[in-house]
Write a structure and sequence with these properties.
The complex is a heterodimer of chains A (about 425) and B (about 270). Chain A has about 425 residues and is of the alpha/beta class. Chain A folds into 2 domains: about 10-290, Type I PLP-dependent aspartate aminotransferase-like (Major domain) (Aspartate Aminotransferase, domain 2); about 290-435, Aspartate Aminotransferase, domain 1 (Alpha-Beta Complex). Chain A contains 18 helices and 12 strands. Chain A has helices at about 10-15, 40-50, 65-75, 90-100, 115-125, 140-145, 170-175, 190-195, 230-235, 240, 250-255, 260-275, 280-290, 290-310, 330-335, 355-365, 395-400, 415-435; strands at about 80-85, 105-110, 130-135, 150-155, 180-185, 205, 220-225, 315-320, 345-350, 370, 380-385, 405-410. In chain A, helix 7 (about 170-175) links the parallel strand 4 and strand 5. Chain B is of the alpha/beta class and about 270 residues long. Chain B has a single domain (about 1-265), classed as Rossmann fold (3-Layer(aba) Sandwich), CATH 3.40.50. In chain B, helix 3 (about 100-110) links the parallel strand 5 and strand 6. The chains are: A alpha/beta (about 425), B alpha/beta (about 270).
């Protein structure tokens, strides 16, 4: 389609990166399940390998279906481009591996998804990359934790599951003052609720498994570059600013003034680590993104009703959503998020006034909520983080992430809010009785 | 590489290669708030297909030092001085937008130094609206947005400068912001637009050019519409017009078509 004079979010959600298939006229994005793509000539092959021409060679590096997804997420985020990978974890790993090797150091928020915490705290240490964790709101802590070998600051836009909102403008400023980029995991907020690049973040990734695909059907991740960070000026990233003998001594920051990171991430990271996304997965995620604005509206509207219900329930000790003035991020959420505190997402936690056994009874009594380890589905979901997603964390680390032994996490779906409230009401009553 | 030109370092992308006197040379000149990287696919191709490539950053922006050119004529002198500094007798001159006027003027000032002239996304005159000129100073972010919207013609570009997955609206915006920030003393957005707006020598310059001239126009270009390029082409001695399916950001929206047109033209 011809370019829109000023494409809006809903238009981009449907059209960015996609056109009717020139070969068949197919209007929906075709799934290109092909490992490789034919060269026009020997010169074409040489030019593609040497990055003199752009195109698809082998689906580990790029694929036409994946490229539509990459353009679409980049468009929605306001970035310069993106790379689709096998999972959100693969996206985080790709970002880190592109920016540093052994001897590197990361400063990260304590309020992270358990899988990210595992990668940083345990696995990357084995490869010589250390992480210092700081509470997301402790700005002095972020500043003090930066070392000469620090290469990245990293946090979640809203922490999992406590919903501590990251003060992106402030943390980005701290990062930039030190010549470092800020990477954020924007899975919970999606570009519909928050545009981190507009607030100073340099790199974004999503677990596309969650709200972007939205239907609990696919695992995937997307890494997006805002093109704002000046790697040359920083002087801390020879991987991007000095000749790379792994690619004909290419200097990525000369090849692309704003896209050096993405160039290396694709040409080295996807090439060598190989955590590529299946084109079928890319198609499922694209299908989800087409309705992202509609779904996110419903997610947060349902969430608001349920947060209000739980906050007034006598058997509930605490509800951890920034909608409530009691939440420590209430003010910051109103400042940063598109819909104010309501836009802090549909995944949140609460504590019942009961024992761990009563917590189990609550979960087992629910009928509509599904007990499983995922969020961002059209279906409403429930889990007990301390024994599942965050089970490797110590009590101290759990407390740092805002999780108690009795905390229950909900992911509010798109069902009728009244039915969800009835389900919760019945389960709370059953749990309360179990303690009598 | 960086070359001393008019007493200041001028950056030119060469794909990491030294200048080989035995090879022909092609100079790529970018437009306002762009830099060498807008040519990356085409310049890299020529650097690996028998050409010396000099894809410059104009003075006072990007990786180049010195003062930003105040006029097309001033910038054209810089291009000729670059050839002098490198001992290059003759080169193909390829320019986009503002850079096309610079290439045109350089080819007119030193006709024997230009083997080919390729004007990509060009127009003469190249007026810039008073609102855009004013916003380039008072509200540059707003002006960047306007230019970005007018420069692109598609929401689904082909695999481009960063490879598949490139979002050109975002890439162009980020580059314009970076170039504006690259000179803290002089607003290169305004000086570039003003130089385009003030340039009055287009028809005389075109008539003075001796070498073959390619007009490479974008079918959906709203910044420099095809008819504006064709008006200038009427004054050329040896003009060839190639229209590609793109807006003003031809090199990234239609990278292969632009490459093929340049490749065929420079082979003549």
């Amino acid at each position: 389609m011809p370019g829109h004079p000023d494409p809006g979010f809903d238009t981009l959600s449907i059209h960015a990166g996609a056109q009717p298939d020139p070969a068949t006229g197919a209007r929906a994005v075709p799934i290109h399940l092909s490992t490789s793509f034919v060269f026009d000539s020997s010169d074409h092959a040489v030019s593609l390998f040497n990055l003199e021409r752009s195109g698809h060679v082998y689906s580990r590096i790029s694929n036409p279906t994946n490229a539509v997804l990459e353009q679409r997420v980049a468009a929605l985020e306001g970035g310069i481009g993106a790379i689709a990978v096998a999972s959100g974890q693969a996206a985080l790993h790709l970002a880190i591996a592109t920016l540093m090797g052994a001897g590197g150091h990361i400063v990260a928020s304590t309020a992270l998804y358990g899988g990210s915490q595992n990668l940083l705290h345990y696995t990357l240490r084995r490869f010589g990359i250390e992480t210092t964790f700081v509470k997301p709101g402790d700005l002095d802590g972020w500043r003090a934790a930066i070392r000469p070998n620090t290469r990245l600051l990293f946090g979640e836009t809203v922490g999992n599951p406590g919903l501590e909102v990251l003060d992106i403008p402030a943390v980005a400023q701290i990062a930039h003052d030190a010549g470092l980029p800020l990477l954020v995991d924007s899975t919970f907020t999606t570009p519909y609720l928050l545009k981190p690049f507009d607030h100073g973040a340099d790199l974004i990734y999503h677990s596309a498994t969650k709200f972007l695909s939205g239907h609990g059907t696919v695992i995937g991740g997307v890494l997006v570059d805002g093109g704002s960070f000046d790697w040359d000026q920083s002087g801390k990233f020879p991987e991007l600013t000095e000749p790379y003998d792994g690619f004909h001594n290419m200097v990525f920051s000369e090849e692309s003034t704003v896209g050096a990171f993405l160039l290396r991430a694709r040409r080295e990271g996807l090439r060598d680590f190989g955590a590529c996304m299946s084109p079928h997965s890319a198609w499922l995620i694209l299908q989800g993104i087409e309705t992202l604005p509609l779904r996110m509206e419903r997610h947060i509207n349902n969430t608001e009703k349920i947060v209000r219900f739980l906050a007034e329930h006598p058997f509930v000790a605490r509800v951890g959503h920034p909608l409530l003035e009691s939440h420590p991020s209430h003010t910051l959420a109103n400042k940063l998020l598109k819909h104010g505190a309501k836009g802090a997402g549909s995944v949140f936690s609460f504590d019942i006034k009961g024992s761990r056994e009563q917590g189990k009874k609550f979960i087992e009594t629910l009928r509509i909520f599904s007990h499983l380890a995922n969020v961002g589905d059209v279906r409403s979901l429930v889990i007990h983080p301390a024994s599942t997603t965050h089970f490797r964390m110590s009590d101290e680390a759990l407390a740092g992430a805002g999780i108690g032994p009795g905390t229950i996490r909900l992911s509010i779906g798109l069902e009728d809010a009244d039915d969800l409230i009835d389900d919760l009401k019945r389960a709370l009553k059953s749990a309360e009785k179990a303690g009598a | 590489m960086k070359i001393q030109v008019h007493g200041a370092p001028l950056y030119a992308y060469t794909s990491g290669k030294p200048i080989d006197p035995a090879k022909p040379t092609v100079v790529f000149i970018h437009g306002v708030l762009n830099d060498h990287s807008v040519w990356i696919l085409q310049s890299r191709y020529f650097a690996h297909h028998g050409w010396n490539v000099l894809a410059i950053d104009l003075p006072g922006q990007g990786k180049s030092g010195g003062q930003p050119p105040e006029s097309v004529e001033h910038a054209a002198d810089t291009v000729i001085a670059l050839l002098d500094a490198l001992g290059v007798d003759q080169a193909a001159l390829v320019g986009h937008s503002f850079g096309s006027l610079i290439a045109l003027e350089a080819a007119a000032r030193a006709p024997a130094r230009a083997s080919h002239l390729a004007l990509v996304g060009t127009a003469f005159p190249m007026p810039v609206s008073p609102a855009l000129l004013e916003n380039s100073v008072k509200a540059p972010e707003k002006a960047i947005h306007m230019v970005n919207v007018f420069s692109h013609s598609t929401l689904c570009p082909p695999p481009s400068a960063l490879g598949p997955g490139t979002w050109l609206y975002g890439g162009s915006r980020a580059l314009m912001r970076r170039m504006l920030a690259s000179n803290a003393e002089t607003n290169v957005f305004y000086t570039g637009f003003k130089a385009c707006n003030d340039y009055a020598n287009g028809e005389q310059a075109m008539a003075a050019v001796h070498c073959p001239t390619l007009f490479l126009v974008g079918r959906h270009d709203q910044m420099t519409p095809p008819k504006a390029a064709k008006a200038l082409a009427a004054h050329a001695r040896l003009a060839k017009i190639v229209e590609v399916n793109a807006g003003h950001a031809l090199m990234t929206e239609a990278p292969d078509e632009v490459l093929f047109a340049l490749r065929d033209f420079l082979a003549e």
